[in-house]
């Protein structure tokens, strides 16, 4: 990769590759410093409020009830201290609140896997494929592996377990033995000027993997209940049927966790409903009442 211009062209053509550092320690330190500054300013402002309240001055003692008087204009500097400190707190609170919200947003960004970082290091390698960044001086360590937990994908999203497995399979198995024969690297025309040399990266669209997982989820959503009921139909022993229901419910909850990102309460509710359907089917197939009593 020949410098930042070529890198930005490649990332612009394929946004899924965009990753940056969040600088979490620096962001947290910045917030902690502003918090300490606000604590001091809050204490100072409270002392000024007390001084104005107990000053015996007809004007300053009314600041708590009349903001217009507190705003001024004032003949003496001491008369305007409370308003000056209020404005200072307002400015600092604005910066503090923005920093807190920004950090909260950064913490919710998806992490970067080791495979993602390896791929990106290949992209910025000079010479091509060396995984040695083209950056110079201290910038050379911008994408060092020790910062792995600090990186985030700008266009990424949190993937379910099955999607991560398929993604890893495509990169480490499929491409190594099959995909490399049919997939071309990002072309210089698509990704920018690389002096006639394509960058050492092959792009697999995550949307296709997500589509495959969605299709599998749709099929399994209808297949699991029907296949489970079909299997229970051929089991005659009541005890064996109960064990089969437990096994089918366990399989259902496992598949649900793999192909989706459900909350615990959603997993519990779906698994309970699935087990209830199977129990009703067993009772119906035995000729017994569906509901007790």
TrEMBL record:
<feature type="domain" description="DUF6594">
    <location>
        <begin position="4"/>
        <end position="279"/>
    </location>
</feature>
<keyword id="KW-1133">Transmembrane helix</keyword>
<protein>
    <recommendedName>
        <fullName>DUF6594 domain-containing protein</fullName>
    </recommendedName>
</protein>
<dbReference type="InterPro" id="IPR046529">
    <property type="entry name" value="DUF6594"/>
</dbReference>
<feature type="transmembrane region" description="Helical">
    <location>
        <begin position="241"/>
        <end position="260"/>
    </location>
</feature>
<feature type="transmembrane region" description="Helical">
    <location>
        <begin position="267"/>
        <end position="284"/>
    </location>
</feature>
<keyword id="KW-0472">Membrane</keyword>
<keyword id="KW-0812">Transmembrane</keyword>
<dbReference type="Pfam" id="PF20237">
    <property type="entry name" value="DUF6594"/>
</dbReference>
